[in-house]
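pls design
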């Protein structure tokens, strides 16, 4: 399932990210803000549980989030979304998956993995700004399933049709949320029109 989240504020920040003249400072801030807005939207579907509390006035029934959460960025660019996601889910655990695309084959190479404990009882939110061929995110989702995760959603900022097809084929049960679906990939497997290399733009390593 792919869901493109439509919101004027999201589209405006995304345009800032796409512009080639946007400096790293503003790019990074936009990634963080978009992550907050997107996770807030995604959380519309989260389950609530009823508890009893006491206000200064009286006892009453109240609602809290029913699940525990894990946020898992795909390094490096996914790191840019973590602080924004934690604004919405401040009690979430944070795991890390390090994957880098081989420049020639465009296949992901794993270099790091540290996942939250009790992963099978948490709702896992994988974040990465870019879904291009889908190789990195599909591998990350498989690593999480292999580690026992049962409830996973994937949140990106720009998705290419090729990546959506790959994730939908490899992991049909995992919802994909994106702020935009772009046209295609170029010969170097970069998203068109896209925004270039998200990791380099966040960390100013162009
Ligand atoms: C980028 C991006 C995704 C991946 C998407 O990471 O952050 O993880 O490419 O491409 P794919 O869908 O074709 O796999 P990259 O490998 O450039 O590493 P970086 O974040 O460290 O720059
Ligand atoms: N990774 C990026 O950072 N950008 C793309 O366009 C494709 C993969």
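designed seq:
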């Amino acid at each position: 399932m792919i869901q493109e989240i439509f919101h004027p504020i999201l589209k405006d920040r995304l345009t800032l990210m796409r512009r080639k003249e946007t400096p790293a400072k503003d790019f990074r801030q936009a990634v963080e803000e978009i992550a907050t807005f997107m996770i807030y939207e995604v959380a519309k579907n989260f389950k609530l549980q009823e508890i009893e509390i006491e206000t200064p006035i009286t006892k009453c029934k109240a609602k809290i989030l029913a699940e525990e959460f894990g946020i898992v960025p795909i390094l490096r660019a996914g790191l840019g979304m973590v602080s924004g996601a934690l604004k919405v889910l401040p009690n979430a655990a944070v795991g890390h998956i390090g994957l880098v695309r081989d420049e020639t084959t465009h296949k992901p190479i794993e270099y790091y993995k540290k996942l939250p404990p009790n992963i099978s009882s948490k709702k896992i939110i994988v974040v990465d700004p870019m879904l291009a061929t889908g190789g990195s995110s599909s591998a990350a989702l498989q690593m999480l399933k292999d580690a026992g995760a049962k409830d996973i959603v994937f949140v990106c900022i720009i998705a290419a049709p090729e990546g959506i097809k790959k994730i939908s084929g490899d992991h049909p049960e995992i919802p994909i949320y994106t702020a935009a679906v772009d046209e295609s990939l170029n010969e170097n497997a970069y998203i068109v029109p896209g925004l270039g290399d998200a990791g380099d733009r966040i960390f100013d390593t162009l």
